[in-house]
Design a protein that fits this description.
Elements lengths: L14 H7 L6 E3 L12 H8 L6 E6 L6 E5 L4 H6 L4 E6 L7 H7 L10 E9 L14 E7 L2 E6 L22 E5 L4 E4 L4 E6 L3 E8 L4 H15 L22 H18 L2 H13 L16 H11 L1 E3 L5 E4 L2 E4 L2 E3 L7 H13 L1 E2 L1 H4 L4 H12 L3 E3 L1
Antiparallel strand pairs: 1-9, 2-3, 2-4, 4-5, 5-11, 6-9, 6-11, 7-8, 7-10, 12-16, 12-17, 13-14, 14-15
Length: 387
């Protein structure tokens, strides 16, 4: 997606201007961002998905009169929904792009932002009065109204204290300073930490395009875990110049310095560009812990496989994360081993697959036998599908 072409779903701004003026800085209301919006899932499909084991869903309700909040993790059964029918309730489903090609295509509308930063497309269905309470997110989000009407109140408040002793993270002192009612096709962008509260004016469906914002702790822990395989320190703790001590119970500065000298290898590794490329590729493509891939029941013979991909093309599985760093490629937490026989032209094709998630038949035909073998292995693992 070109960065200097104005986009209707960015209020007529170019991606470059939106990122410069709004991204992680201030909210933006976009009326009619998606004219004639066609939802990736129907209402019936949303409820069907909420009842499936492999979908990550929640049911949030607020009891009429008492104002008490309840949350139930999915799968959400019809019986469970019947139990809350007298309250204001909302069903939320994460990662709808794993179950719907149309949902994945909606995310492609935001491909002016690196795929590594996109987390998921969440959908919420709420009855009139439903919502999840005033809260804030620690990541950027676009709130796209799919059907019905929802009133959004937002606030730049710095008081982000939460109501104690409840499962939901609800702000205890929410004070809105702006509000709008969004209808089908309208969209609201909010930067991280911006307080907001959405209440359904009618039964409604809202799509949330959320962006990954890993914590510094998560990045650090994952990097140290990565280094267990990447770094192989040699030698032993050595103190051949040890001096006699009169305080054997102490750990002196020399001993601390020897430890620091050994651990300096971690700092050195973080400054190594090749190490950081491999870490970044694996980190940003690592699937969430509950994600699994289904390999085909029958592996196609090579001749049949080549015939099919050459006629139909390929696409990434809906759950697959595939990214590149320079000439290195990473898929679902692993580096894709590319031999020196993979030509620069082939690598451009692999980049196209990472960028657009598909390769047309006319492009697949041009790949070398080495790349065809790589594709065959990825299909066998369930990471890539034949169109």
């Amino acid at each position: 997606m070109k960065k200097n072409v104005a986009l209707a779903h960015l209020n007529g701004l170019t991606p470059a201007k939106f990122l410069r003026d709004y991204w992680q800085k201030k909210p933006l209301l976009i009326r009619n961002a998606f004219p004639n919006f066609e939802a990736p899932l129907t209402q019936a499909e949303i409820f069907e998905l909420a009842g499936r084991e492999e979908a990550e869903s929640r049911l949030i309700s607020q009891q009429a009169g008492s104002g008490q909040w309840e949350m139930h993790n999915g799968p959400i059964s019809k019986k469970r929904l019947s139990a809350v029918k007298k309250s204001a309730w909302t069903v939320l489903i994460q990662d709808t792009q794993h179950f719907s090609r149309e949902a994945q295509q909606l995310l492609q509308q935001f491909s002016f932002i690196p795929h590594a930063r996109i987390d998921d497309l969440m959908v919420s269905y709420a009855v009139k009065g439903g919502g999840v309470g005033p809260h804030f997110d620690s990541y950027d989000v676009f709130l796209l109204q799919g059907a019905g009407e929802r009133r959004w109140q937002i606030s730049a408040q710095r008081d982000l204290s939460l109501v104690p002793n409840i499962a939901l993270k609800i702000l205890s002192n929410f004070k809105p300073d702006q509000e709008w009612v969004l209808t089908t096709g309208d969209m609201l962008y909010l930067p991280p930490g911006y307080a907001h509260h959405g209440v359904a004016e009618t039964n409604c469906i809202t799509w949330s395009i959320g962006f990954r914002a890993p914590s510094a702790a998560e990045i650090t822990y994952d990097f140290l875990d990565f280094l267990r395989d990447e770094l192989a320190p040699a030698g032993l703790y050595n103190d051949s110049d040890l001096a006699a001590t009169e305080a054997p119970g102490g750990i002196d500065r020399d001993m601390q310095a020897r430890l620091a000298q050994i651990l300096a290898q971690v700092t050195q590794a973080s400054r190594n560009p090749n190490v950081m490329k491999r870490f970044a590729g694996r980190f940003f493509t690592e699937p969430k812990s509950h994600i699994y891939f289904d390999a085909p029941e029958i592996e196609l013979p090579t001749r049949t496989f080549l015939k099919q991909i050459s006629a139909r093309g390929v696409e990434l599985d809906l759950k697959t994360k595939f990214l590149f760093v320079d000439n290195m490629f990473f898929i679902n937490g692993d580096e894709l081993e590319m031999s020196t026989h993979v030509s620069p032209k082939d690598r451009l094709m692999w980049r196209a697959l990472a960028n657009t998630r598909t390769l047309a038949a006319r492009d697949v035909v041009q790949l070398s036998p080495t790349s065809h073998t790589l594709l065959q292995n990825l299909v066998a693992n369930g990471y890539v599908q034949i169109l």
